Amino acid sequence: MTTLAVIGLGLIGASSCAAIKMRMPGWTIHGFSRTETTRQRALARGLVDQCFESVELTVFGADLILIAVPMGQFSSVFNAVWLAREEYSVVTDVGSTKGAVVDDLIAVTKAIPSWFVPGHPIAGSEQSGVNAANPDLFVDHQVILTPLAETATSALELVTDFWEKQGASVSIMNVARHDEVLALTSHLPHILAFSLVHALSDDDEHLDIFRYAAGGFRDFTRIAASDSEMWRDISLSNRDAILRGIDRYTGRLGEMREAIALGDRDWIMRSFERARNARRLFSSLSGKGDHPVTNFCPSVFQVTHATSGLHGNIRVPGDKSISHRSIMLGALADGVTTVEGFLEGEDAIATVQAFREMGVLIDGPDAGKVTVHGVGRDGLKPPKAALYMGNSGTSMRLLSGILAGQSFDSELIGDSSLSRRPMRRIAEPLKCLGASITTSENGTPPIYISGGQVLSGCHTDLAVASAQVKSALLLAGLYAQGETSIKEPAPTRDHTERMLVGFGCKVERDGSICKILGGGKLTGCHIDVPSDISSAAFFIVAATLIPDSDLTLHHVGVNPTRTGILEILKLMGANIEIENEHEVGGEPVADLRVRYAPLKGIAIPENLVPLAIDEFPVLFVAASCAEGETLITGAQELRVKESDRIQSMVDGLTVLGVRIIGTPDGAIVSGGGPEFRFSSGAVEACEDHRIAMAFSVAGLLACGPVRISDCVNVATSFPNFVELAREVGFPLTVSE
Length: 736
Ligand code: S3P
Prior knowledge:
The chain has about 725 residues and is α/β, with parallel strands linked by helices.
């Protein structure tokens, strides 16, 4: 038998009573409200067993006390609870700001007690009061608990269990982080909605305006109907974080005002596109719950000279290529596929979202875990609209292969960078299999695919060494009659082949040719995604260049079709030890220990280029600090990545004082040797994640600050780059 005391019978308190009454009929519930009508209503609806006019009487005999009053009433409630609670009572709350709640408590108790667990259910509605009580309000919603060092484990367990019984999922955060995140994701939107409606209601003709207001007004301002006392108190209790949020927002709004005044079409487009992309990411991260989104990257990085070596043991996020493929093959498999180590970056999320839009149930990602409920090879459903691939070339090209074999039509679109990238390289060979696929006139997205075609296996000699093209053909080959074979001009990453085998499909390799027989069936499995060597590369080069560094990168994928970066750096003189080599789910992984070493310039062997294709931006930085000349040839593919990576690096490195000449297929870099210092300066990341991170490494060896703009796309492949870089010793600051 548990006795629950609920102080405050508004929407949240009364809904908690309703949820417990429905799910835990044996519990006794005491309720407190300041108003007589609320008390009567709560009793009449059977939400509580007894109702009281005083907090002291309510908490008598309670095992658990839930405080659900507006923020402004916490002090007086804490005073009463402190005097009257039983020695064994655990106390929790639902306040929207945790710092202020903890301060109010300490003002009463003088020290943080072990029996208090600060909490915040991320659920609610614009409705308020006991009449809006809803027993399912917390189902599939998050409750954030912010325990303190002094909080007893038993108290935390009790409160966790209390919320889980109501159908919520509990996550733990610290108080400051909670307040910072909620200021942006909850408090600021409410303040904006209240302010907009207030501003419009100043107008004499506001009734007319409201009468003709369309869905946009309704959607944006729904929360302006929320309880005003509650929101007044929240606004004041999280003052500093909210003020920072308002400044951030008004800054952007001011820029937008100026762009509209100047008719700056490009700026407006980029801002809207960034927001649209971020909103889509939010939808896919949040599923149906209200999870706070935390993995955006700020747009400006500033890095200054590293005054000491880089140190630490870190694990960079999951491999992007393998993460995409785990969703694609998981979706086409029969049965369930579980994934761990999944990259929660925008690119891989674009793939998740696309399959959701084709009817695949995908749980997560949540802390790198994803569960894909496969629909079978022929189980995809027609998407309702064009599939948006964001910045992700891998999503667009591999999906084209899959969509070529479907019975329905589809359209693939992307952001401004992806909309400039060449797609004929996949459209042409897919047509040879019988696909009906078109691109824009100049071979770029959107891609239109007509379904219902009969595909027949054939042989393709690839014109470019591209794993994306090879993979698109292998995936289309699953749907083709007979054998599909592909000859590569040079080896490229073979994750698709390895993973198809892991899903029970036969893929044959005969020298530079790989083959697949149509009609194969995939069976769901478990995938452990190793860390991405392409993300590790920034740290490998940084630790190599900064004296006294000693950095270990754990669980890095070292598939031989990806380790060109290690071979090239070793040829230049780097000190990289490969330790603890083993295999996970068909992919080799290892820990990489990197220590400082002076580098010398080399002519990079052309056969290593496709095996290090994504690592060239940071290799340009390494070459700038090597003794003598580094010659890069055979790397023309760099010109058609997320940006023209040869041009982006030549432009930025020239600003930073490097002697570099771009060539059609590479560059000649005159390295300054280990004593070289980059000039201070401002460079552009050109909407390209890897360019942004490469210039961050250059900043570590600059004689003054290096400012890098346009970095938001770092979130496509490495959402926690800033945190990890700081952890190992990058002096990196960010701004919007
Ligand atoms: C990728 C292949 C490479 C690489 C990209 C990811 C993949 O592209 O640059 O970041 O996952 O197959 P190309 O196939 O165009 O070389």
